[in-house]
Fold:
Amino acid sequence: MQEERRVISVIVANEASALSRISGLFSARGYNVVSLTVAPIPESDYSRLTIVTVGSVRVIEQITKQLHKLIPVLRVSDTQEMIEKEMVLTKFPITEDLNNISVLANAYNGKIVNVGTDTIIVMIADEPKRVEHFLTAIRRYHPLEIVRGGTVAVDR
Amino acid sequence: MQISGAQMVIEALIAENVTTVFGYPGGAIMNVYDEIYKQEGFEHILTRHEQAAIHAAEGYAKVTGKVGVAMITSGPGFTNAVTGLADAYMDSIPLVVISGQVPMSLIGTDAFQEIDAVGISRACTKHNYLVTDAKDLPRILKEAFYIAASGRPGPVHVDIPKDVTAQIEEFVYPENVDIPTYKPTVKGNKRQIKKAVEAIAEAKRPLFYLGGGVINSNAAEEVRAFVKQTGIPAVETFMARGTLRYDDPLLISMLGMHGSYAANMAMSETDLVIALGARFDDRVTGKLSEFAKHAGIIHVDIDPASISKLVNADYPIVGDVKGVVAEMIELAKEQVDPKRYLPWLETVDHFDKLHPLRYIEDTDRIKPQWVIERVGELLGDDANISTDVGQHQMWTAQFYPFTRPRQWVSSGGLGTMGFGFPAALGVKRGAMDKISINFTGDGSILMNIQELMTAVEKKLPVINIILNNNYLGMVRQWQTLFYNKRHSETDLSMQPDFVMLAESFGGVGYRVSTKEEFDAALKDAVEKNVVAIIDVKVERLENVLPMVPSGGSLFNMMLLENKES
Structure:
């Protein structure tokens, strides 16, 4: 069966074990997690999880149903109409071509956010697919460290 | 009123009308047990093992339809109970299990008898709680009972640190539950129900596929009426035994791995499956791609995740079976004509005549199936039946004449050896007016034999009938059929003296090797109303047939007839 990538947004009550319930569901049932981000929703008792997963239509349907079965889960949505963004922090040696790096970062909604004696740090925030392009493009500047933040998404 | 967390537990149980608690004390739960010593609101039954406490609570819940309650301590007390929790989770049995935990200040320090109980139980409970403040206890206990019993039922685990049970706080037990994130859908979608009934009216070979959800939702009465009204034949899953009377002309017995030829063939030939509270378990469906290949599927289930999980439903209806069937009955009055299905009934009848569910009698040795049929003849409706796990379990599901829902208690989803006897204790306590029979095997009975002490002490006269073939019979059967008779570690020739064993605990033991002896032993045990073991020497090499080999198609059965030749 054809596998597809899906972004699932989960609203969950702020409880100590909510995250482990959700990650436990994925591990126990053998579902894939590509990325998972979580943070409280301001001025509410809930948090939002954004899960990127890969699976067949049947598996995706099961994931959403099983997530919804968890008692602290308020809402699960997996519409394909989502605006997705991912943040990446990348560290380069200061000896690399900073001009080019800066131009590249600009092209991906980013900039240089820190300059040290030996390294610079670049932040970008863009769609996951474009993030992949960025990571390919910067390879030639010998990045020392790449930290991906995971996808966050919101319904269009 | 200002009371301790331990007192709150007692007050909550009384408020929930709990009359029986099964349990085993220990260090971390001692504050609660100190309150149990003083209270008179419910009976505490001390089992001799925590696993047995949970199984007893399961048996009690199954037979009464109430929430079963068990209480255990931290660490090993809790880990012993895990099998019971998993068993209840797989079979959707409503339980509230309260465990003690080390004090809050010691959590995470590898303290004596500490274990991450909620971390472990998360995988095998419907929900769980670690109570960190006694202020939350009334709400949490109220929620626990509500979650356990509502929607698709299941076990809920509440872990309470020792200092929280000592903490003094104001106690007001909430009257209502409000969990914004948990609102199970009970009422089925009207339009879907209408479409489903239309599909029934148009089908030529419809078939009811009744699952354990029918029993859980107390829908047997409605289902019986619906089957009768429509004249559509029905197959039951293992978990649904007793939904229809054994002699209902429209019941085609059990389906699945050890289902009857007629039930499995009907499922293979049907053009419309009407699945009620059934979850298309692999032991039922066999090879999925061949399962009910020509049929549309109506699937009614309270658990949305069960619908289209394995088999795509053409008419998915999320809701409580009882209400949905009641609505279907009304619609079907106008639309469904039972005469339409008469040719189909003839076909089913033909299947049944071709290969009826039977066994071959033996004049020398007792056949295990005979024992089950005989108990059915002698006790029938007067007995509640539990089993352990193995061949005896399948024979009981096949051959006992069940007449009512909640008469049958067995470990379906998890297949827990050692389930039967402690469950039978809970069954007996839940229905003292019925005889409690536990069919067991010589392997299974030894897994929770210590409960003889509980049974004798609490005067819970369970009659254990061991169908003793000196084998782990079901594994031996698979070894015979699929492992070229390599009977690796399944020969149980070395056995205790079960008669002496029963008597050493203060029960009564019977050793039986003829039919006459069996009748006499059963009569005596029933009349004396005692805790008993009847050790029946049965034919050693009997197999459970028919059989669909694991992963095979339902219509490719190993049949008794083939074995004879």
Summary: Strands of chain A lie at 4-13, 35-40, 46-55, 73-77, 82-93, 110-115, 119-126, 145-155.
